[in-house]
Known about the structure:
The chain contains seven helices and six strands, in the order αββααααββαββα. It is α+β, with helices and mostly antiparallel strands.
Amino acid sequence: METSFNFIGGDLSLDFCNTADGDINSGEWDDWIADYPALLGWAQDAGLLPPERAAALHEQADIHPAEAAQVMEFAHALRLALFELFSATADERTPSENAVTTFNDYLQSALSHLRIMSSAPGQFGWRWADETDLAAPLWPIVWAASQLLTSERVGLVRQCSGKDCSWLFLDTSRNHSRRWCDMKGCGNRAKAHRHYQRSKV
Ligand SMILES: [Zn+2]
């Protein structure tokens, strides 16, 4: 399947934040996960859901539209909380207490569905229970965020310098100098703008 989303964040939780395209603080942005089917499409492209599970959740959402709408309310609040946690980190400021509390609520709820499984003698792995729960696609995102936030990698979280762009990414470049979410998009636009400014004078 051809993907219609961008996955430039370097971490699932950052890519989830980047489903708001534009300047999230100005309210001028497009929402790529505006409704439940869009969330499923994104989760599938992110590798969180095999097609048959996505189809089953789609069916469930059609039967229980109010529940699906509530999951989308959670999804959008989670995204906003994560955006605050990560953009605060990128700006080297303390995040709002509200974002920490909101995230912890989601973490508690997600972890209640996390199980270990024996994958081979002497080997264990994680798995998610309650796969048919409409909120299930959000749990791995919460888990990924909790891992990133508490790891050293969180120091590599940056926010794109592009005008009207709030995207977040892990700067894994060798000298930690990456400024743009995507050289083809924001980086090029900025370069073209600088060129235009220079050629104007
Ligand atoms: Zn950008």
